[in-house]
Structures are given as C-alpha cells and as structure tokens.
Amino acid sequence: MIESKKKYKIEDAISIVAEPSKNKYGQYFTPEIIADFMINLANINDKSEILEPSSGKGIFIDLLSKKGYNNITAYELDENLINERHRNIVKNESFVSAKIEKKFDLIIGNPPYIRWKNLEKELKQELATNHLWNKYFNSLCDYSYIFILKSIEQLNENGQLIFITPEYWLNTTHSVTLRNYMMQHGYFEEIYHFNETPIFDNVTVSIIIFKFIKSNNKKPFINLTKYYANRKLTTKILSNLKEKKNIDFAEHLKISQFKQNENWLLTSNDVKKEMIHFENKCSVNGTVVQNLFSSTTKYVTIGDVCDIGNGLVSGLDKAFRLNGEFLTEKEKQYQLKVVKAKDLLPFYYQNITNYIYLNEIEDEETIKNEFPNYYDKLLNYKEKLEKRYQYNKHIPFWKWVFLRNFNLFSSNKERIFVPCKERISNKNYFRFAYAGTKLFPTQDVTAIFKKDDIKESIFYILAFLNNYRVFQWLIHNGIIKGNIVEFSERPIASIPFRKINWQNANEVKIHNEIVLLTKNYIENKVETNLEKINKLFDELFK
After folding, report:
1. Nearest CA to 443 among 420, 414, 423?
2. Nearest alpha carbon to residue 496 among 519, 512, 476
C-alpha cells in the first residue's frame, strides 16, 4: 500500500546543476568505473563478438581489451575522439548509416542522446534517408532511439544489449514505437536506476543502466535495483548494487516484464496495482482501465473538470516586485497581488507579494507624472528591461512581456496554485494551495480553476490534488527531470480525477465532509483534519 503523509514540512531547497551547453554529437563520456560495472554485467567469453556503436574516447574498448576480449568492433562519428591505438578497431563513420553484415553477442556503450530540435543539420539529413528511422520514428523522437533499435537488430539470438541512458524514454509518448519493438524482440534482464546520482559532469537527469536480451523466450521478471543517494558512485557501491546487497539508499525489486503500448514504470508490482486501482476508480462510468497508462485509458482527468493557466511573465521580476516602498494612493491602485511559489504550502499560502502593473498605460510621460515612485523604480532597470525577450513586438520597459491567461486570472473565480516545478528529493507531497480570488500567479506558479459546469467543490478538488495517491501517480507518470516534477498545463490536465456520483448519498456525504474539513484546515491548520480527509478518500477509493 502507498503510505499517506500526515505532516507537511517545506524542505530546504537543493541547488540544481546547470545543464551543459550543447555539444555537437550529444557526447557525455562514461566514467571508467561505470563502464567497468557495465562490462561486468555481460555474460561473454573470449570468442564473443562485441560492438561499441558510439565509442567516444574508447573507454569500453580499453577495458574490454584489458579483460581479454579482442573481437571488438566500434564506430565513432567524431574523428577527433578516435585514439591512435584504436584505429584498427574503430570505424570513423556513423553507426546509424553503417551497413553491418555480422551479428554480435554483446553490444555495449553510451549512445548519444539528442532531441531532434538540437540535432545538427547533417544528422537530420542522415536520418531523413534512413529506413529504420522512417519506419519507426519521427521528428518528435530522440537520436538515441535509433541507436537502441538498430543495436537490437544487430544482435544474435540471446545477444545482450547493455546501455547507459537517461530514464526519460521509458515513459514518453513518442518512444512508444521503440518500447513496442523491444518487447517484440526480447526482454530486460536487469535495470539499474540512478535517480539523481551524479554520473556525468554537469548533468542532473535520472540515469538508467539496462541489460536487454534479444530472445523469443522471455523471462517473466526484471531484476530492478534503485539507488537514491545524491553522491558520487564508488567501485564498492557499484559492487554492492550488482550483488544485490542491502545498503543505504538502495532498493532491490523483482518486477514484471514490461508490455507493449504502456509506459514503463520502475516501481514494484504492488505500486503498479495501486495505480491501476486509482485509475479505475477515476474511470468513466465505471469502465475498467485495461492498460496501465496506455492510450486506451478512459478515466476522468483534472483537465476535464478544470481550466489551467501558466503564470504571467514580467521578464525581470525584481524590477516589478514591491518591497515596502512609499506609494501614492493612485499607485496603490495599479498593483497585482501575487503569490510566489516559495510561499505555497499544501492547502494554503503564506504570503502575498505586490507587483507594479502598468500595462494599461501607453506613454512614458503619463507614468513619469502620475506614477513617480513606480517610474523611479523601473528607471533603475530600464536598460535590462529593454533587453527582455520581446515576443516579436515592441514592449515598453514599464510593461510585463507576456500576459498569458490574464483574463482568467482577473476573473472572480476561486483558484488553486501550484509551483510550476517541484523538487521531490526529500518529500512525498506536492503544494497545491487554495488562493481564493483576485490573486495572480507569475511564471513560477500554475493556476487551476474549476469549470463552471462542475458540481464538485474547489475545496474537494484541492484536497484530492493533495492526496498521496496523486503524488504517487505523478512521480511515475508526470513530466519529471531528475527529481523535478513539472506542473505546466498538460501534466496537470492529465491527472486522473475521482468524480462524485451525485446519485449516491454516501458519496455526497463524503464530498461535503471533505469540503468542510478542507476549509477548516485552511483556516485553523489543525493537523487531525488531514488525517480525517485521507480516511474519507480511502472510503472513496475502496
């Protein structure tokens, strides 16, 4: 069972390492201890044929050679990376286009991971004429997909594919053709999931190492090891993980083999069952969900019952943010009351921040004469304000640059705010907060509004979004990069929602009790109300 979180606490923020600048071929070189760990996962002998499809600086070649494996073939597109001692092994050409006649017992390495929009023109042109790419993929897919798929094609029966990749492709819509292909041609023997463990310099994405077997005879289970520590890996830690030893921050599971047309979840079978049950209870007219997170699911979503809007963009927050300055009465009338992400807690917010808002004023002279304190403050930032992104139009320095959803935010409708990005490293809750009316979100917050024709109270929706079932569903099915969950419109809209059967007196009673308890908690912060709310949701999800 998924455990409920009874007490909420804001954790200290953990800084995120900046993403590296773009490199031409998606090159992030595998550390030696990781490459050695991957080789040790292979079941091979000195006669095995081995392929490294993107050899980089040759770390896999060196380690394989030291271990006595000499039947090695490798490809590397970037000639500058090919070491002289590897010239007889590495072919300076693209693995993607190479015509390779023989099959291999082991294919191992670290394929380049580049999204289509970031691909060099020459790589896009290569893919445009590649039969495998055209058969299975499109311009919404990533460069690594074809490395994985072609590698499987080049394996012998019972051949092994051992790759290190980001986790992302296991559950994205555009990788479903790759996932289906893999399930049609074999099975996973082992997966190692390194959540935010720093493996590559300046990269914070979650990483997996997987061992895939090409075979018609599939094993029913995958050996899954999850490692949670945000610390550098050592040879000892990797050895303990391989031997399935019980160490801190590690979890060893046996999970069912993945299926076609599903997102692949790196979690226990029990948790998967919980989420299937959750979705079924949110289903339309009692329709049973046949495939977990597949395109055929038929459950009600938050997007069906709510309008969702991303916050306003000023372009330079500190220029518009007020902090106790003396203001005239007229100036006080030209403000936005804003709740920032840092001030959100589960169910409620802590503080309001006032912002200058002069987008209705068209000339600078009016601002100078009628809003002198605002003018002086903005003038200090004029040079920076004029360098903001202009959205293909001229935006005066005193105006916000992007008023997306402004009419929705200006309405008298009650709203729920949530940070547009939420770190979940050390907590198991999100911060959906009731924000009443007339409060605005800036770009660090997303706002949720109940649709007019929805009978459920916004306080019921609020309590539902803060329920631990939603947290559990999102950490496996949301948009997650490293340990950062994104809350833009699309991922919020996709959350399953438990509607009330208004013909069922008991469900109506539960709804009304949840509403009263939620209002009371927002006003009085009595922790026992949260326990009662969770028990009422337990009733609805029986």
Report:
1. 420
2. 476
State both tokens at 94: 């693209």
Residue 62 structure tokens? 């060196």
Number of H helices, E strands in the chain: 20, 18
Cα 79 from chain centre: 34
Distance CA 264, CA 267 (A): 9
Give the contacts of 453 (CB within 8 A, at least 6 positions apart). none
Residue pLDDT, tens place only, 425-474: 677 899 999 999 999 999 999 999 999 999 999 999 999 999 999 999 98
Q: Which pTM does this prediction carry?
A: 0.76
Coil, strand, or helix at residue 197? coil
Residue of 102, 174, 99 whose CA lies nearest to 132: 99
Which DSSP symbol is given to 174?
A: G
Query: Class of the 32-266 domain?
Result: alpha beta
Task: With residue 493 as reference, give the H or E element that holds it.
Answer: helix 489-493
Q: For the chain, where do the domains classified as CATH 3.40.50.150 start and end?
A: 32-266
Q: Return the number of other C-beta atoms located less than 10 Å from residue 169's C-beta.
A: 20
